[in-house]
């Protein structure tokens, strides 16, 4: 995947959530640059997730948000070094309603950005969905220790779930949509009389999977027999 393909896939990731009806406008249709201020929070595994989430929100460190204030980050350094992240909004239904109101006040100009973030950080947190980060980094590959293509789940940071394929931004977004926004995904499901099931988004995910390049075997052979499940 080259840089042009990366940006096209990023736009496709946003378009998918627009199709689900839950995407806010695109903020950065390009690779996010490194932000040292945000990284101080994101790389500190001792910090509560809420601190990291709000740091990204305050600093505008995202490509786009969803209607529930979750947000995505997509970064491209080279074809051998990409990073995607999904920062889920840590709020329950009542807190979500309060945030929606705060956002409307912000859009109308009744409160400023600083007041909005101050009030938002006082909203009770509810940790349901985990932080998810995907990385493909050839330079950091270490046989049996650090897979080139891998996923982090949560804030632990030293867990690396090996992926055989190199995910595109759109593939990453589709997986998030299928697993964590199930009611929207299932809205297009058609169930047949013979217990068959057809879902347009499942078809799109399958097509996108075929576009994801397979990691070279010399950087996957150890992971394949050691801790990869297919």
Automatic annotation (TrEMBL):
Pfam hit, one: DUF2290
Superkingdom field: Bacteria
InterPro entries: DUF2290
Name of the protein described by the UniProt record: DUF2290 domain-containing protein
Protein species of origin: Caballeronia udeis
């Amino acid at each position: 995947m080259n840089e042009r393909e990366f940006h096209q896939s990023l736009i496709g990731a946003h378009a998918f959530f627009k199709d689900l009806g839950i995407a806010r406008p695109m903020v950065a249709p390009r690779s996010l640059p490194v932000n040292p201020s945000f990284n101080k929070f994101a790389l500190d595994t001792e910090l509560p997730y809420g601190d990291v989430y709000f740091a990204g929100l305050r600093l505008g460190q995202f490509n786009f948000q969803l209607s529930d204030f979750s947000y995505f980050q997509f970064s491209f350094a080279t074809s051998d070094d990409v990073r995607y992240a999904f920062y889920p909004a840590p709020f329950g239904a009542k807190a979500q309603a309060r945030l929606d109101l705060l956002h409307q006040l912000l859009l109308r100009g009744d409160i400023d950005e600083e007041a909005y973030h101050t009030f938002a950080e006082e909203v009770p947190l509810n940790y349901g969905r985990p932080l998810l980060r995907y990385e493909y980094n050839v330079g950091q590959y270490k046989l049996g220790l650090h897979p080139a293509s891998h996923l982090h789940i949560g804030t632990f940071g030293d867990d690396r779930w090996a992926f055989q394929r190199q995910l595109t931004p759109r593939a990453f977004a589709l997986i998030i949509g299928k697993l964590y926004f199930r009611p929207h995904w299932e809205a297009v499901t058609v169930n047949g009389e013979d217990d068959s099931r057809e879902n347009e988004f499942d078809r799109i995910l399958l097509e996108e999977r075929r576009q994801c390049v397979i990691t070279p075997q010399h950087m996957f052979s150890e992971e394949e027999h050691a801790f990869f499940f297919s």
